[in-house]
Design brief:
There is one protein chain. The protein is mainly alpha-helical. The chain has a domain at 32-69. 51% of the residues lie in helices and 0% in strands. It is built from two helices and no strands. The longest helix has 33 residues, at 28-60. The radius of gyration is 27 Å and the shape is rod-shaped. It starts with 27 loop residues before the first helix and ends with a helix. The model has no long low-confidence stretch (mean pLDDT 79).
Length: 74
């Protein structure tokens, strides 16, 4: 049987090489933390883009005090 390789995946690991004490992939906690980080970064980005849009709208309307108008907390 020419060209046959031992049974396993493309990385050369044999099928019986997986140990039960090692997880096969990321745990649920890891995936939850990653999802929360992505949501937090998305929220931060959307807030910053909204602030920049308000500043651009202010500048395009010809006003000169746009720095204080861009900060809604003041």
């Amino acid at each position: 049987m020419r060209g046959e390789t031992p049974q396993g995946d493309e990385h050369g690991e044999e099928q019986g090489d997986h140990r039960p004490d090692q997880p096969a992939g990321p745990s649920g906690k890891t995936l939850l933390i990653a999802a929360l980080v992505v949501v937090a970064l998305g929220y931060f980005l959307s807030v910053k883009l909204h602030e920049m849009g308000r500043l651009q709208d202010c500048v395009m309307s010809g006003r000169r005090n746009c720095a204080s108008a861009a900060d809604p907390s003041q």
